[in-house]
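Dear Dr. K.,

Following up on our conversation at the group meeting, I've run the structure prediction for U3 small nucleolar RNA-associated protein 6 homolog from Prunus armeniaca. I'm pasting the input sequence below exactly as I used it, so you can double-check it against your construct before we proceed with anything downstream. Let me know if the numbering doesn't match what you have in your notebook.
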Amino acid sequence: MADVVQYRLERMINELDDLEQRMIFTRREIAEIVKQRRKFEYRLKRPSPLKEDYLAYIEYETQLDSLRGLRKKSVMRELQKQGLKTNKKMKKSVSDFAGVRRIVDIYRLAVMRFKGDIELWFRYLEFCRERRHGRMKKVLAQVIRFHPKVPGVWIYAAAWEFDHNLNVEAARAIMQSGLRVCPTSEDLWIEYLRMELTFLNKLKARKVALGENVGILAHDQISADEKQWRDENKDLYMPLNEEGEHNEGSDIESEKSRKKIDKFQEQGFSILRTIYSGAVEALPSSFSMRKKFLEILDATDLVNSEEMHKEILSDIKRDFSTQPGYWDWLARLEYNPATTQEISEENTHTQVEKAVQVYEEAVELLPSAIMFNQYANFFMGVTALLKGENKPSGLASQSASYISHLLRVYEKAETMGCIDEDLACQHISFYLQLGRLDEARKLAEKLCREKFSSSAQLCLLRVSVEVRHLTRDSTSPSKAELLSIFELLKDALTRVSTSEAESLWLMALKIFANQKHYFEKLVEISVKSLAKDGGPENGFSLSSAIVNFVLQKDGVRHARDVYKRFLALPHPGLAIYRTCIELESNLASNGDKDSLVNARKLYESALKNYDQNLRLWRDYYCMETKMGTSETASAVYWRARKILKDSSALVTQDLGALESLVSKSCVSCRTD
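The predicted structure tokens came back this morning:
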């Protein structure tokens, strides 16, 4: 390995000498460059070099080459100030090319080592493209050979041939080869169409630059030079029938132009139809691809574009009329609140009515919650425009009708049995936005009592509506009102599982945090619920939330009493153990010895149930190293090594790294 590294360094001698002779780097700086390159070369020659080793080497060489360029410009300025000629001194030499050549060589080694890393290949390609390196075509061939199933590779190669080499035939051949290998790639089909239309536009622009008629390939009988000469020298001769010839010629020319077919538009239409047919055959179930084809068609001026537009819409309706997304897209073609522009009131109302007709047809054919959700979202977008600062003038007079129509949509969904949890919440929330609190309250009560009795989201919304209703006239509710809220929460909390009722429980604890009687009842309900379902290992922990509330409200003593009740349950969960350990550890760090004892007891109790939890052992060890003694820390460490089945995991985690600290503490104990 050392011989190879030395050989590669010796090959840099000419470059380094050149840098020194040109006064770009000093001898000391060159020695540092050699030192850094030797370090990187050894990293690349080890048995299993990492991808980061190659990237770090590339980053270093890139920065070094940038610095070389800046130093070279600085030296040239200094020579110019001294009045010396810089052409001979600073002409291109070996050091100007060595940096890029070395980076390309490192990239080549990297991609051969990590052939499957497509990101690395693209970095290699981008470097070659930016530096205009001659290996670009060879690298493209290699990446296509190793990754033929990646559509982006074919697109990149075709784009380089099309934009850089200006070789349309090669770009077309690459795209067609990519489509044969990846026929189910939407991006390939779309980019192929865009490439062909772009080429057609370039031909059309070239025709305009040459002074020919826009979009017409047929040439007149008189050449352009002859026509220009006649215009410049028309005073040299006088035709006998000047006026008649001119009028007759202009009429014939206008008649020809009316009869001629725009060859560019015709060819573009043919290309789009051919590619569209192939794409639909390869991807018959891709709705997004057909939408993109339609967008491209609308953005270009082609012959028979209206017929093609109708054909694509007909095909989409035939194949996707059973999908709610199709109807939503079709309606938003008529009027889209997200992208609408300022238009007249009459046109706006007409467009909205057309969109409504599409949605009405959709809910009759596909009566589903998804379809009604999209219908409602459309009108939510329309009503949101009415509340914005840039309110379209075309919607101002129709505000009340749109709001009432949206409410009818919600009611129709409920009547047809197509309402889901999200739609129900939207319905209630919309009533609240309109300030119709009583109607929102009645609707929430009805839905929670009938169809969505076990929905945590709807129960939470109902409780918030009730609280708003009770506190509408006064800031603090009465005892009777508190009792009604508690009964409502109690009914919801007993019906909804603890894992789904996080927001509901937090609201209940917040409302009754200062009501001791109701808070104790909530604790009783939580104990029963956790005894039935058990506590979680991670995520939201009801018992932990209650302990934190009690700690902030009543202090440490009451918090300990509460967490002991939870820990006495059959399956308290690891989350409550962590909360209690954190509480006691914080107190122990402030000098409370009893808290340290309690923390150790909690760790031992948790490890009885979770003895294979590596993080728990690590936290236990860290606590002992900070607040215990070296003997207790060593005991925890060796117990972990003995009990854990995967002892090798200790090496990869922080606990394994702390083994040296244990040995050091043992040595210090022996010396004492």
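Two things stood out to me. Residues 618 and 655 are 5 Å apart (CA to CA). The two ends are 47 Å apart (CA to CA).

Best regards,
J.T.
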